Amino acid sequence: MAIRVTFDTNTLERIVTPESFCNDEHFEAYKSIRKALIEGRIEGFFSEALISLDTFCRLDKPTFVGKIRPHSESFSPDGKSITIQIGVRLPQKPQIHSRTAERIAHVLDLGMRALIGPRYLGGPNLGVGDPGIPYFPATLEFINRTQQVSSDLWARNLGRAQVVGLGCQLNMSDGVVGALWTEALNRNRNPVEIKQISEAINEWVDGEAVAAHIGYDLDLFCTEDRARNSGGNSTLHPTNREWLNKKYEVKFVGLAELANQLV
After folding, report:
1. Do 204 and 159 form a contact (C-beta atoms < 8 A)?
2. Quick one: which of 257, 166, 244 has its CA closest to 206?
3. Quick one: which of 34, 56, 53, 43 has its CA closest to 106?
4. What pTM was computed for the model?
5. Domain extents for the chain?
6. To the nearest whole percent, how much of the chain has pLDDT over 90?
7. Could you give phi then psi for residue 88, rounded to 5 degrees?
8. Cβ(130)–Cβ(51) below 8 Å
9. Measured in whole angstroms, how far is the alpha carbon of residue 25 from the centre of its chain?
């Protein structure tokens, strides 16, 4: 039976183009993982946030998220009842760098599929619903579990909680009342604030990936992110990894560790 692995964004380039890392001490590990994916011994997955947000550069992320707005529509299909649809209106995406687009294409060539992450009423959500991206179908059980993990992360001020909190804090410091938290991200921010926003968005992405991984009940979460300088404010910090392992039995591995399990 294949090992079902969620690959963090920071691992993908080394897997899809291992020849670019021939001087790395774990070069052979990268090659063996790629070979295992091709042979079907590993079934690979990635967070949908890779497509929707993690492809942008640091400066583009605050601008993109800051322009997301709630959107609703109502209509009467039969003149007797009213249907209301609530979602978000996404801005035009920044141009993806050609190297990043190539990496995504290689990921899909290896048969990897996207995981559906948490959903929030009125958004913003990191889901893209791109018809060109193969998704791993989610059952109601998967969805409910993913939502529960997202709520648990929020309670620990992890994942999405940090960018929402930062947006609200910036609204307050700007003296703006009644604005959406997303709006604060796209005002005239200084370089320090842009860095804080980008880091909070990255933490949101990490939280979505871990929540989806647990929701789908996959085997291993492969990442090279140790979050050692985050002071515990990262989903992937050792302290939070330990909590996730105890509560959800999440097994975190690096690329070298994953390769060792293939032997």
Report:
1. yes
2. 244
3. 34
4. 0.88
5. 3-65+95-260
6. 59
7. -135, 155
8. yes
9. 28
